[in-house]
Design a protein that fits this description.
Blueprint lengths: L1 H20 L20 E7 L2 E6 L8 E5 L6 E7 L2 E7 L11 E7 L4 E10 L2 E7 L3 H10 L2 E6 L7 E6 L3 H15 L3
């Protein structure tokens, strides 16, 4: 009897360990369709390396979000950290850089890495790339480690860049926007 109880315990323990080690399907990295984040009063929560991080309050803690951007930049790259969907915006683009519907956009980093995104127009001179907030760090990692990025129209690969940005200080900005989201929103 004693031997069978040890065998049963060992079998249960092995089963529990095996279940804990099984791989899971990774979260979908499908781009979310961006919902326009509501405008509201802003408050600067951090500034460093030419970047400013702002909290945008909307009256509802679950709809508040944080932005990291260079104030004097035009066109601008704005990192957005929100409760559900985060991402980045390209602002101040020439009218040719904005389509009426979703368009493929390729980010070309200075190390040669190419990352495809789906961009959605916010207005005639701005695009938004959105993804689930759970993917924030992974999606923005290339921006944090690179020095420069160019955005190209994915539908017209031979065309020149839609916009180009110096990414110095972006690692700090991306992390500060995410920290702002964690501290000041409903997530």
């Amino acid at each position: 009897m004693r031997r069978s109880s040890h065998t049963l315990f060992a079998a249960l323990l092995a089963g529990a360990l095996l279940a804990g080690c099984q791989t899971t399907t990774p979260q979908s990295t499908t781009a979310a369709t961006p919902k326009a984040h509501s405008d509201g009063p802003t408050r600067v929560v951090a500034e460093k390396r030419g970047w400013t991080v702002e909290l945008v309050t909307t009256g509802d803690r679950d709809r508040a979000y944080c932005l990291a951007q260079r104030k004097a930049a035009a066109p601008g790259l704005v990192f957005v950290a929100a409760v559900r969907d985060s991402g980045f915006r390209l602002t101040g683009l020439p009218p040719r850089g904005v389509a009426d519907s979703a368009k493929p956009l390729t980010a070309l980093f200075d190390d040669g890495e190419r990352v495809p995104f789906q961009a959605h127009p916010l207005d005639e001179r701005a695009l938004m790339v959105a993804f689930p907030t759970a993917d924030y760090e992974d999606a923005l990692f290339p921006f944090a480690r690179s020095r420069k990025v160019e955005f190209h129209d994915g539908a017209s690969p031979g065309a020149g860049p839609v916009a180009a940005f110096n990414l110095s200080g972006s690692s700090w900005a991306i992390n500060a926007a995410d920290e702002c989201r964690r501290m000041h929103t409903g997530s």
